[in-house]
Amino acid sequence: MLRKYTLPLFLICLGFLPLKAQNFEGWITYKTEAVNPHPDKMPDSVWMAGVKEQFGEKGYIIQKYFYSEGNYFSEIGEGENKGYQLFNRENKFIYSWKQGSDTASSVNSRKNGDKIIEIIALKKRQEILGIQCQGLLIKSKSEGLTLWYNQDYFKMDPKLFKSHDYRFWNKILKEIGCLPLKMELEGMMVHIVQTATSYKETSIPKETFTIPSFKVIMENPAN
After folding, report:
1. What pTM did the predictor assign?
2. Considering only the top CATH level, what class is 26-219?
3. Cα 84-88-91 angle, rounded to 5 deg
4. Which terminus of the chain has a smaller tally of CB atoms within 10 A, N or C?
5. pLDDT tens digit string along 124-171?
C-alpha cells in the first residue's frame, strides 16, 4: 500500500545573482516526487499508479515557498487538493491546512523525536538551475537526508530559526547557512526528491504570513 507522505519542510521551503550580504527574501518553487523506495519488491508501474492516485496524473506535485525575515509559507499542489503550510514565528508552530477548510493541524517546531547520527560532506557535485552545488548527507536514527546547495546563493541566518528543531531545520542552516536547491529524503518506506525549478528574489508582503482563523486546530500527537 502506498504510504501517504507528510512532505518535508524542507523541506526548506529561489534573477541568478548571488546573495552575499543579506538573507534571501522571495519565493522558491520545488518539484516534489515520490520515488519507489523498494523497486526490487514493488514494480515501478504499481508504485506510479499509487503516486498518481495521490499526486494526480502528473505523478508529482509543485510546492511554492515564500521566505521573509524568519518567516515561511508554502502553497502545495493545485486545484481542489491545494494545501498550505505556515510557520508562525511568534509561537514556533507550523500550521497545515487544505484550501477552503476551517480546520488545521499544527506541529511544534521546537520538538524533534529523531536524532542526528552523522553528517558527511559529499565529494560529488550537482548543477541545479545553472548553479554548481555541493552535497551534504545528514544521517539520523530513522532516515537519511541529502542536501544540495551553494553558500554563495540564498543565504539564511541560522539565528532566525535557532529553535526550529523539527526536521533539523536549525541544524541544517547552521551547517550550510543557506537554502538548499535540492533535498532527497530516504527512509525505510519513503524516498522523496524535492528539486528547485524556479525562484525570484522579491519583497513578500507581511500578510502572507498571517494565520487564518480556524474553528479547529489539532496538534500532531506524534510531535
Report:
1. 0.85
2. mainly beta
3. 140
4. N
5. 999 999 999 999 999 999 999 999 999 999 999 999 999 999 999 999
